[in-house]
Amino acid sequence: MSDHFLRLSIILIPWLSPMILDAQVDGFNKGKGNMDMVGSLSYDQGLAYYLEEGTADIQRYRASLSVFTARGISDDLDIQLSIPFIASNGESGLQDGAAYLKWLPLKKRTGKGLLSFGAAIGGSTPLSDYGTEGLGAIGQQATSLTSLGVLQFMKDNGYFISLVAGQVAVSSPTPDAMVGTFRFGHASGAHFWEAYVQMQEAFGGKDYLGVGDQAPSTFKELGVSFIKMGGKYYHPFRDRYGWVIETNYVLAGRNVDRSVLAAFSFIMHFRH
Q1: How far is CA 62 from CA 55, 91, 156, in A?
Q2: Is the separation of the CB atoms in 10 and 2 below 8 Å?
Q3: What is the pTM assigned to this prediction?
Q4: What is the CATH number of the domain that holds 236?
Q5: Rounded-to-integer distance, Cα 128 and Cα 114, Å
Q6: Helix, strand, coil shares, percent, the chain, to 5
Q7: What is the 3-state secondary structure (H, E, C) of 93-140?
Q8: Which of 31, 94, 108, 149 has its CA 20 to 30 A from that of 138?
């Protein structure tokens, strides 16, 4: 597995949940002057709604159209931007735009592979006055600042494991959260695939259908937690282009839909 492939071909679909942001960050660099632009269409079907205890028979959907771009400022530093448009149960609008700087300065050969370590900082802010209440809510109208650590080991045969984890500081009344993504996958000149587990754990917050002190006056106060499992497959074609399919399922959570997602993305690569 060469640095050439890692710089030219690794892409990532933006994560479109109202809270978790670390899925935009992985253990690969684009390389100085290289850029990827991604258009993504996804559909997320809710099957029930996770409460503090048990589930509620609430079924929502979310259709998302997003654009994502990542550019290598240097061989170790990338900038990433994303803008999502979301429709959910009769409501629609631009949701939260996000931006990241990812820095992976430490790369060390060990055994038959490459160990990469670094950090990322970024955040998000609402791009429209979208609804936050009821079945059509598409976000919590919160501004966030995220700090993450990134650790990845990639073997010479293309298999890799990575861990991205950190904390999201969110504007009041939405609670802060801890986030993380674990990935296992394989990258080659012909394709890229990965399986992942993502989590978010809110620090407190109110509960949907909560009573007493836990009863919310607005959905902005809800503490959103979940564990999600999924996978994606990327295939390049005609040197500058590629496509991605992705699916995931929310295994457990609090104040979040038990949902299944399907997504398709089209990628254009611009090389320095």
Answers
A1: 19, 10, 39
A2: no
A3: 0.90
A4: 2.40.160.40
A5: 42
A6: 5, 60, 35
A7: EECEEEEEEEEEEEEEEECCEEEEEEEEEEEEEECCCCCCCCCCCCCC
A8: 149
What is the domain extent for residue 259? 3-270
**Domain tally, the chain:** 1
pLDDT in tens, the chain (272 residues): 333 333 333 333 333 344 445 557 888 999 999 999 999 999 999 999 999 999 999 999 999 999 999 999 999 999 999 999 999 999 999 999 999 999 999 999 988 999 999 999 999 999 999 999 988 899 999 999 999 999 999 999 999 999 999 999 999 999 999 999 999 999 988 889 999 999 999 999 999 999 999 999 999 999 999 999 999 999 998 889 999 999 999 999 999 999 999 999 999 999 87
- How far apart are the C-alpha atoms of 3 and 6, rounded to whole Å? 5
Whether 272 and 8 have beta carbons less than 8 Å apart is answered as no
